[in-house]
């Protein structure tokens, strides 16, 4: 295949992966808000456990049908990943409860510089000046859009600190494990989803009771709420898979930077659903700045020297790939 044709094909697949993630992420936000606000199902951690249980079922079926080949992930690596991932989920829920919405948004924004730090230290990534500035513009724009009241307390700060670092480490390891062990997104999900489902379904009801003072088994289930739970779990399969595909093809930093397009879309959809109260001049200005920063980041990071590894020392374990695998370019540029 000619280089130009190969590059065009990669660009199409990359765009499709991003669109898949944006659609499923925005979709699950809308469904979960309806489930919690309209039907009062406030058991977020337990719901996440159900999401991973459904994802596990999907990987089991695909493996049984022969679309996913067997693969190996060392137990210490799996335990490390599950630890980071579960601390991320729990930390985010607790941070939202203990902090103001403004500080919670600032904590989420701080994942980008933390992810940059991890890539610089762990993968020897080097960023150009334009790439660094474009990240700053995105942070500024999203901050203008979302940060309003900002108040902080000690326990809220600790919860946010744990949430930010565990989430950044979890996303870093998605990319790291796929590269190091040559795992497709389906393979990696097949290893991690069962462990996350088991731990979250065991711990989730207790954590949710602590956060809400309500028991998940005492919730008044009805046909509508159950249908919304099933819909949420179904969309979550796509959300989990698309996250692994995007981070595997790019990096955690790119996923964070360009992923804020979802924040912009949620704000716009909030305007259509809830009226002009959700959209004012400073929010529109923030959207424009953020989108401009994303475009600048995409252009700057794709240029030679925009974002490169100084050395490539990751060992790679060879394995067979199933027909449902996604490849990433394992060269010096990321």
Automatic annotation (TrEMBL):
It is found in: Membrane. Residues 23-297 form the Sugar phosphate transporter domain. The chain crosses the membrane at residues 12-31, 43-66, 78-96, 133-150, 156-174, 186-207, 219-241, 253-275, 281-300. Keywords: Membrane, Transmembrane, Transmembrane helix. It is a multi-pass membrane protein. Residues 313-326 have a biased composition (Polar residues). Residues 303-334 are annotated as: Disordered. One of its GO terms (cellular component) is membrane. Signal peptide: none annotated. Pfam families: TPT. This is Sugar phosphate transporter domain-containing protein.
